[in-house]
Each structure stands twice: as structure tokens, then as C-alpha cells.
Specification:
By secondary structure, the chain is of the alpha/beta class. It has 2 domains: about 100 residues, Formyl transferase, N-terminal domain (Rossmann fold), CATH 3.40.50; about 90 residues, 3-Layer(aba) Sandwich (Rossmann fold), CATH 3.40.50. The chain has 6 helices and 7 strands. Strands 3-2-1-4-5-6-7 form a 7-stranded mixed β-sheet, sandwiched between helices. β2, α2 and β3 form a beta-alpha-beta unit. α1 packs parallel to α6 and α5 packs across α6. The longest helix is centred in the C-terminal third of the chain and has 24 residues.
Length: about 200
């Protein structure tokens, strides 16, 4: 199974999955990294790991149709079976979602369906969890469709929300769990335990 990663930031979740593939824990191969940010850590990680990588964004392709075509071409060229959104800060275009329907995964730093939707990313999510007085939070791995954070949840892991938590301390603990649940969910897909449409 060939994995494509879409990433915009440091790529720590991507690295946890790459490491699990290298160790043989996940029966899959990281095949390509696509980023909208040419200077991000994920691109550096791809270079270090000798994984093909592309900067594809409105800077490289101002025309949305041409950007879609470039993305789909890169995915096809690397025989992509599954797309992993690892801190990708753009909405995936309908053309890509349609072509890879049921084969795009994202991780959300809360227990969906709570605290999902447009604008709910990064520190905003953890701020909302604390403001709501939730006793636990965590991470959710879900399928991606046309709506933010609405696809089927395939895996979840919880962390307690502590009385003295700040959004930053909660974010750090949730991220540690993301590095567990994301590779584990992909492992279950690769092994056939989780069946995708």
C-alpha cells in the first residue's frame, strides 16, 4: 500500500507513520509528500527520508484547475493508495476528494464529533475543549469528505483534561497520543482489519 502525505507544518505525525513503515509495523510504503509550504519541516523530513516531494500551492499553480491536475498527476505517478493529511492547513479540493473518496485520512485533535468544523484546528480546538469544561479530549482519525471533520471516525484515543491545563499543555499531550493512534489506524487499514470502501 502506497501512502501519500499532505502536510503544511513540521510533519511530526508524518514521521511517526514513516517510522512505523520502516520498522515493519505498518505494511505500507511512504511514496510521496505534497506540501503547500515549500519551507516546512515536512518537506525537510521527506528529503531526509529520501521520499519524493512536491511543493504544490496557489503560488506554483494560481489556477485551481491546474493545481488539482498537478496534485492528481503526482498522486497517480506514485501509485497512491491512501492519502494521509498530516497537518495540512488547506481544504482538500473536491476533485481530489472525489478521485480518492474513502481513501483520505485526517487526524483531528479532539474527540469528534465534538469541536470539529471550519476554523477548528490547532490551538483553537484545545481552547474550545477547555472553555467547554470537557473532562477528556483526545485525537480522532477520520475519513475526509467535502465537509470539515464530518467523515467516518476510524479510530480515537483519549487524554484527560487536567484542572490546570492551558491550551498549550493540552495540545502537547494530545499530540503524543496522535503519534500513537494515527499509525495504529493505518496499520489496521493495511492489515485489512479496517475495510475502506
Amino acid at each position: 500500500m502506497n501512502l501519500a502525505f499532505f502536510a503544511s507544518g513540521g510533519g511530526s505525525n508524518m514521521q511517526s507513520i514513516i517510522d512505523a513503515c520502516k520498522s515493519g509495523d505498518i505494511d505500507a510504503a511512504p511514496s510521496v509528500v505534497i506540501s503547500n509550504n515549500s519551507k516546512c519541516g515536512a518537506i525537510e523530513r521527506a528529503e531526509t527520508e529520501d521520499i519524493a516531494h512536491y511543493h504544490l500551492s496557489t503560488k506554483t499553480h494560481p489556477d485551481p484547475a491546474e493545481l488539482d491536475a498537478a496534485m492528481l498527476d503526482a498522486l497517480k505517478q506514485h501509485d497512491t493508495d491512501l492519502i494521509i493529511l498530516a497537518g495540512y492547513m488547506k481544504k482538500v479540493s473536491p476533485a481530489v476528494v472525489h478521485k480518492y473518496s474513502g481513501r483520505i485520512l485526517n487526524i483531528h485533535p479532539a474527540l469528534l464529533p465534538k469541536h470539529g468544523g471550519e476554523g477548528m484546528y490547532g490551538i483553537n480546538v484545545h481552547t474550545a475543549v477547555i472553555a467547554a469544561g470537557d473532562k477528556e479530549s483526545g485525537a480522532s482519525v477520520h475519513l475526509v469528505d467535502e465537509e470539515y471533520d464530518r467523515g467516518e471516525v476510524l479510530g480515537q484515543i483519549t487524554v484527560p483534561v487536567l484542572e490546570d491545563d492551558t491550551p498549550e499543555t493540552l495540545a502537547a499531550r494530545v499530540l503524543e497520543k496522535e503519534h500513537v493512534i494515527f499509525p495504529d489506524t493505518i496499520k489496521r487499514i493495511a492489515s485489512g482489519e479496517i475495510k475502506l470502501a
